[in-house]
């Protein structure tokens, strides 16, 4: 440890270190250039930030350096300033402690460099760079340094004790004039007094000693959050906004930024307030990026962080305004275009705003705002605050009075004496979400309506189309009607099946009921009832309802099975009913009747009976059963339709009227009539068939008898006429008795001639018939023979064709076989030709081998004796004989083998 303490520590120029003597407690400041060798009791220390000291590395620390555009905030400065240095004088080497002004701060503008004395701490800050729309809020913490460069600016700014507004034109937002600058002593400033340093007065500011800059914590923490209204956006909108901000930060082009903003302006899934928040946030991010780009250009490309102490003034456009509250809580509304610098103790209203900026209310021709007066105001003064042409019916408006400001169209700015109310909750509204408070007129088409309740009387009226109606929230309320799903289906679904539902219906429109042709509905309310006959579209008042009927349905209209409906058919109604009757001889019959009718008389009387179908069926059954009890089964089988019509349609006009509900039965049709007992029904059927058969036979006999009687009467009449003629002729020709015999003879002759002519004509007809029959048979024979000849010729032709086809087929097969044999023969010849040379060579080789064997066995000795070779001797011996070809072939093959060419064979 002692060795470590004795190490030499070099302290270069513009460096220092603190050494604590543990024995005396004294701290020495060693300022370079020097060299320090600590003893065993020396420790190198530094400040721990809590007023004490802690061990430090055994090395020197550099001077505190502030460059141009920076300043040093020095805590506990030395008591006696020295002109040689901003933090007292020093000598190279060890320096004793300086007397300090504890608990105070001193601001030293750059450029400067100095060492710290024990007990001091320093913070180097960049000078505050402000643009025209920024300001600083500073606080007086001690006496001011009158020699500081910005002392006079602080004194002049201290005279601006309230809000400063540039560009305001109305009386509610006048610019507060600053007090003239004086040479007042700094002590006139109060400790704790706050002063606003505006960027329009200076773009560069270093606070003098005695002034402390208040951090803009409320702005830096709330920027982009509640102040901008971003937190009020839906989750999906916040996520989309975050993506767009990231794209802006990554370097979106001007054209892309313009396209994105245009798309946001036309998004219908966002309210106008939400669109305004998104657009303002994007504009702010774009402006920040542009400002950073300009700053980097001015600083030679180095990035400069935003000043955390700078605050933004509120810049208002032509359709913007803001709320300010002074220290006493008095509000003020500032309208744009303006630039607002708040006073030291002024605060902005930020709830629902977009960076403390609110949008004016844009009112169309069919829009309005609901206002409440909160401060008494005269009529003339109020008319200046409202859009031109707004009607005012009082000379003075007290607090609590309510107004409805209608659009002309116009742009409306709120004012202090009034507040905008939510027309539904009647709570004061502050924010840019104008859709929640702007009252829109209801456009009503020609077949619709709306319900409006008078809040003073509670009466609900119906406003019919076609019109545009603006509900006045001061005394009216737009009422929605709740209709259970069963009633909705009965009233609306009858004519519009696509509107059927299974849930309760809540509609802001008046109920529109379509009444089809030839149908009627009964509409009831506490004021009475009325009947509507279709075709027609009827609007129901708020408390009107349709009366429901329960009509019997099914095969038997006895009321056990019903269908509920509100629509009654008054013309062309038809109903079928099945029931049983009993005859006088206790035979039961099943009857099916088709009934047609309509309604007449007073319309309200049509709905007196809940089930007119059951009333009609019961009445018809009772009358028909009563009439059939007096007739037998056989009579009913014959006369039932007539009995039904006589029983039901017994009036003079052939109609059956019902006095209960004005129903009229105009037609009856028997659709079915049969015996209920199957066995008895079969018996009746058999008897009926037999009776019908007998009736047919009787009718046939009667017709035959009538025919015989008619012929006999005709014959009797004819003879009577003949006798009369004879008598008249005899009486007339008494004198001509002689001629009577001639006449009789002539009659006999003529009769005989007539009989002969008849016989001749009959024979001639028989002969002609025989000749026709014979000619027909002969023609049939000839035709039959011709047909057989044609059949034989056709068969012969077909057989000839078959034979020629078979012959051609056989000839083709023979040609194919012949061609095949020729092809095979040619193939064999080719194969034999291909093998001929090899076969001849093989045979010759075999023969040569045999000859050579014989010569070899017999010619050796002779060859030796003659001095010739065996081959020469053999050639000589066989020359001129057929065997010579063997030796010649052998020589030829030998020569060809030597020349490399095949030898020619014989």
TrEMBL record:
Major vault protein shoulder domain sequence ranges: 575-677
Domain of life from the UniProt record: Bacteria
Region ranges (Disordered): 882-906
Keyword Ion transport in record: no
Amino acid composition bias (Basic and acidic residues), ranges on this chain: 888-906
Keywords: Coiled coil
InterPro entries hit by this protein: Band_7/SPFH_dom_sf, MVP, MVP_shoulder
Coiled-coil region(s): 762-822
PANTHER family on file: MAJOR VAULT PROTEIN (PTHR14165)
Name by which UniProt lists this protein: Major vault protein shoulder domain-containing protein
């Amino acid at each position: 440890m002692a060795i470590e303490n004795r190490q030499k520590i070099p302290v270069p120029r513009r460096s220092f270190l603190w050494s604590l003597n543990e024995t005396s407690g004294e701290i020495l400041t060693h300022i370079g250039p020097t060299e320090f060798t600590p003893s065993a009791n020396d420790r190198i220390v530094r400040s721990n930030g809590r007023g004490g000291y802690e061990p430090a590395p055994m090395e020197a620390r550099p001077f505190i350096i502030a460059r141009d555009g920076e300043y040093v905030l020095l805590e506990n400065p030395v008591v006696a300033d020295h002109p040689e240095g901003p933090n007292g004088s020093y000598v190279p080497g060890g320096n004793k402690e300086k007397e300090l002004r504890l608990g105070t701060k001193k601001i030293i503008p750059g450029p400067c460099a100095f060492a710290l004395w024990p007990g001091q701490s320093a913070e180097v800050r960049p000078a505050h760079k402000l643009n025209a729309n920024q300001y600083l809020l500073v606080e007086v913490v001690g006496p001011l340094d009158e020699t500081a460069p910005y002392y006079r600016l602080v004194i002049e700014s201290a005279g601006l004790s309230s809000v400063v507004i540039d560009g305001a034109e109305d009386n509610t937002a006048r610019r507060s004039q600053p007090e003239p600058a004086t040479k007042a002593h700094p002590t006139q400033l109060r400790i704790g007094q706050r002063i606003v340093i505006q960027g329009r007065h200076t773009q560069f500011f270093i606070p003098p000693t005695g002034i402390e800059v208040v951090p803009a914590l409320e702005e830096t923490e709330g920027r982009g959050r509640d102040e901008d209204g971003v937190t009020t956006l839906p989750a999906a909108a916040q996520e989309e906004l975050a993506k767009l901000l990231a794209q802006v930060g990554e370097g979106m082009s001007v054209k892309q930024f313009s396209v994105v903003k245009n798309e946001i302006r036309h998004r219908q899934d966002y309210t106008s307030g939400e669109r305004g928040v998104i657009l303002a946030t994007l504009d702010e991010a774009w402006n920040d990026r542009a400002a950073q780009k300009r700053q980097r250009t001015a600083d030679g490309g180095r990035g400069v962080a935003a000043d955390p102490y700078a605050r933004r003034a509120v810049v208002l456009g032509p359709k913007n305004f803001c709320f300010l509250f002074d220290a006493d809580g008095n509000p003020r509304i500032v309208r744009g275009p303006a630039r607002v610098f708040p006073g030291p103790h002024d605060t902005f209203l930020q709830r629902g705003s977009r960076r403390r900026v609110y949008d004016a209310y844009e009112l169309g021709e069919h829009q309005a705002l609901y206002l409440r007066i909160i401060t008494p105001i005269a009529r003339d003064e109020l008319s200046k605050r409202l859009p031109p042409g707004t009607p005012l019916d009082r000379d003075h408006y007290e607090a609590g009075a309510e107004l409805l400001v209608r659009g002309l169209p116009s742009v409306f700015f709120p004012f202090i004496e009034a507040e905008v109310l939510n027309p539904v909750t009647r709570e004061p509204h502050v924010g840019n979400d104008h859709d929640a408070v702007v009252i829109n007129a209801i456009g009503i088409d020609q077949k619709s309506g709306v319900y409006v309740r008078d809040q003073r009387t509670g009466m609900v009226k119906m406003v019919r189309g076609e019109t545009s109606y603006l509900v006045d929230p001061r005394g009216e309320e737009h009422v929605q009607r709740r209709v259970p799903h069963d009633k909705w289906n009965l009233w609306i679904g009858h004519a519009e099946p696509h509107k059927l539902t299974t849930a309760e219906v809540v509609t802001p429109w008046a109920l529109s009921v379509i009444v089809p042709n030839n149908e009627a509905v009964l509409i009831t309310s506490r004021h009475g009832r009325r009947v509507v006959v279709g075709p027609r579209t009827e609007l129901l008042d708020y408390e009107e309802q349709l009366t429901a009927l329960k009509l019997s349905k099914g095969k038997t209209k006895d009321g056990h099975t019903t269908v509920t409906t509100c629509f009654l058919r008054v013309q062309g109604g038809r109903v079928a009913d099945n029931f049983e009757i009993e005859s006088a001889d206790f035979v039961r019959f099943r009857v099916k009747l088709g009934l047609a009718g309509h309604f007449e008389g007073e319309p309200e009387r049509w709905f007196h009976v809940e089930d007119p179908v059951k009333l009609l069926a019961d009445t018809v059954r009772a009358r028909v059963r009563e009439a059939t009890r007096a007739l037998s089964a056989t009579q009913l089988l014959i006369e039932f339709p007539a009995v039904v019509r006589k029983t039901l349609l017994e009036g003079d006009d052939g109609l059956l009227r019902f006095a209960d509900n004005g129903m009229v039965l105009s037609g009856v049709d028997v659709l079915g009539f049969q015996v209920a007992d199957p066995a008895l029904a079969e018996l009746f059927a058999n008897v009926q068939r037999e009776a019908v058969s007998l009736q047919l036979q009787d009718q046939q006999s009667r017709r035959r008898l009538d025919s015989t009687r008619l012929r006999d009467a005709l014959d009797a009449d004819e003879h009577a006429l003949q006798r009369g003629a004879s008598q008249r002729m005899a009486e007339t020709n008494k004198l001509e008795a002689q001629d009577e015999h001639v006449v009789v003879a002539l009659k006999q002759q003529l009769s005989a001639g007539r009989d002969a002519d008849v016989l001749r004509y009959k024979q001639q007809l028989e002969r002609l018939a025989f000749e026709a029959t014979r000619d027909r048979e002969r023609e049939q024979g000839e035709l039959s023979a011709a047909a057989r000849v044609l059949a034989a010729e056709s068969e012969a032709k077909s057989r000839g064709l078959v034979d020629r086809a078979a012959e051609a087929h056989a000839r083709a097969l023979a040609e194919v076989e012949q061609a095949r044999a020729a092809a095979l023969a040619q193939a064999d010849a080719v194969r034999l030709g291909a093998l001929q040379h090899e076969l001849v060579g093989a045979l010759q080789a075999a023969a040569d081998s045999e000859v050579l064997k014989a010569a070899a066995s017999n010619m050796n000795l002779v060859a030796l004796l003659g001095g010739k070779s065996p081959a020469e001797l053999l050639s000589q011996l066989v020359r001129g004989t057929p065997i010579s070809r063997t030796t010649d072939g052998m020589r030829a093959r030998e020569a060809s083998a030597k020349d490399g060419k095949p030898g020619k064979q014989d």
